Amino acid sequence: MLExxxxxxxxxxxxxxxxxxxxxxxxxxxxxxxxxxxxxxxWFYHLKSGTVFHQTIADAEPxxxxxxxxxxxxxxxxxxxxxxxxxxxxxxxxxxPTFLPAWxxxxxxxxxxxxxxxxxxxxxxxxxxxxxxxxxxxLNLAAHTVFGLGLWLTxxxxx
Length: 159
Description:
- The chain has helices spanning 2-30, 38-47, 66-95, 99-108, 110-121, 133-158.
- The chain is mainly α.
- The protein has one domain.
């Protein structure tokens, strides 16, 4: 069991790193805004007081280390998703990783962003309060597809 958890953590970290490389590519090649994990850090910081949903996270009290907390949270969630995947699929998948379950899981995980994080930040269910919700949703699905690809590739790599 400990081996599954350890390997799941590595797989989740690798997949999160792949997602970050994707974000850098979008910034460099397509001039998409750089990923900013500070609002996510602020959101996680305010969870301790029981505040899950904000009208807008920008109006919430700032936290001095919110950018660092945002990055740590980003990786902690990715690692947790990797562990969950490995625990669900078990040693058989680890011995011969296939893409489809990793991709499906990557797509499933977008639900937490759409139905918890984004409303929590004050940008609505599935980014409905943003200027271009469909663009945000498409970018979210693409990023989580890359996350799924990263889960699979990392699992192959650590074999």
